[in-house]
Amino acid sequence: MWPGILLFVLIRFGPALHDFFSSLAEFSFKGAGFEASAKRRQAEATAALVAATVARPAEGATPEATAEEAKAAAELVAETVTARVIRRAGKSFVLWVDDRPSNNMHERHALEALGVNFILSTSTKDALEKLKHQRFDAIISDMGRTSDSQAGYTLLDALRTSGDRTPFIIYAGSRAPEHRAETRRRGALGCTNRPEELFDMVLSALGRKT
């Protein structure tokens, strides 16, 4: 996965990322005591999160600004991914609800590299059915789906009304302050449209496991 993702990033952003990739190894392999397999997982997570970040550039962002975001994403992995995090991730199950799951391929790969197990769902009805039969450590949902422009809230409200307190994150097109506040008011951890924030939120949610 590593080489293919890096090639994708370089083709898309070219020279603007040269310095970034020149220094990537510096923060991809921190973490004293890592075994080779853990370092490989960390490296794969870094590559996938970088790809997710450059595939979703902030509106109006220049290639240089996107390169800085990519560097910040790589630093986030270096700072947060430890052997303990990898062990916890390998025992975790996350439900991801999105009617276009291919849109989140890189974000999903970044967490799968650490061992997170994903179950995919494309509708609120299907997600609720899955939740009847399996316990999840976290739920990620988009916002609008087919006939329901607030499907993310529909699912969240149904869960909270039933007493289900599973950590819930909305990954959608907005991270405006008012949307963040509304999401938290309804009982979710938050909402974001940035891959690096999603990565951090999921690991934080999984860190609450006992």
Automatic annotation (TrEMBL):
One of its GO terms (biological process) is phosphorelay signal transduction system. The keyword Phosphoprotein applies. SUPFAM superfamilies: CheY-like. CDD domains: REC (cd00156). It comes from the Bacteria. Residues 93-209 form the Response regulatory domain. Pfam families: Response_reg. The modification 4-aspartylphosphate is found at D142. InterPro entries: Bact_response_regulator, CheY-like_superfamily, Sig_transdc_resp-reg_receiver. Keywords: Phosphoprotein. PANTHER family: RESPONSE REGULATORY DOMAIN-CONTAINING PROTEIN, STRESS RESPONSE REGULATOR PROTEIN 1. This is Response regulator. It comes from Candidatus Brocadia carolinensis. The lineage of its organism: Bacteria, Pseudomonadati, Planctomycetota, Candidatus Brocadiia, Candidatus Brocadiales.
